[in-house]
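Review form for a predicted model. The reviewer records the input and the model, then writes brief findings.
Reviewer: anonymous (R2)
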Amino acid sequence: MKILVTPTSMQPNKKSKALDKLRSFSNNLVFNPTGKPLDEDALIDLLKDCDGYIAGLDFVTNKVIDSCKNLKAISRYGAGYDRVDIAAAKSKGILVANTPGVNAEAVGELAIGLILSTARKIPYLDSQTRSGGWVRSTGLELKGKTIGILGLGAIGKVVARCAQGLGMHIIAYDPFINASYCQDNNISVATFEEVISESDVISLHLPLTPDTKHLINENAISRMKDNIILVNTSRGGIIDEEAAYQALKAGKMGGLGLDAFEMEPPKCSPLFELNNVVVTPHNGAHTQEATENMAIASVDNLINLLTGNDCPNVVNR
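Model under review:
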């Protein structure tokens, strides 16, 4: 079987138990040569003759799926699958699986890192000091502040646990929230409106869907506290970046931490002009532990799908 592997963390020159296992299953592997997510045409060129596909952050559109007649299974390297046209895959009998939960610690810890970095403008102060400056900047202490978590899945729970270690009060909204878990872990169940209006810090951990597209828009930001810190380590389209930029310029928002963007990689964003914005290149899942765990899980999923064995992580059965 021919298999395409596109995650940048799964390259042929890297030592990986997951790749060793995949090579034992198939000796016909194709890799992403670009080092970045693939657009339609580049993906079709590599995927058109493949039976299986371990997908990074590529755009797997209806055109891609329609052009790949041999494709039987897609295994997403990660929990999110908003860049895969699930309906198109299902219509062609192509099963899609993901790897939920395996990168929760990594992404949750980065969210906390972005909160701390934004609250104290650490990257800005670092760059100023390195260039000979000696800037005095008044930051925000997190102890005693309220953090609102939108999406209390595996990643949101890591953020809650870490924030409690900083002495923060936790409120959370999730349409499928586990009230018993919240009670046992000192998390206050809240409505979306309560999270928006009562939090000093908001951390986003939601999938990108038609309902969450630009969920954080001008109207939502207007209902937030002044000097709110907003962090997104999920999907970029959840935040209206233009609205966020205007709020930061006006002083409504105190800071913004982004690991995900509406366009990836981003180009010349006006957000980059601001010293209270901290950005990373969709790097939340990139720890040694998480990358290996995701690689193993995605390989196991693909092998199970291609051999007809049970795969509990199928999202479009």
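Findings: The chain has a mean pLDDT of 96.
Further findings: The radius of gyration is 21 Å.
Recommendation: see findings above.
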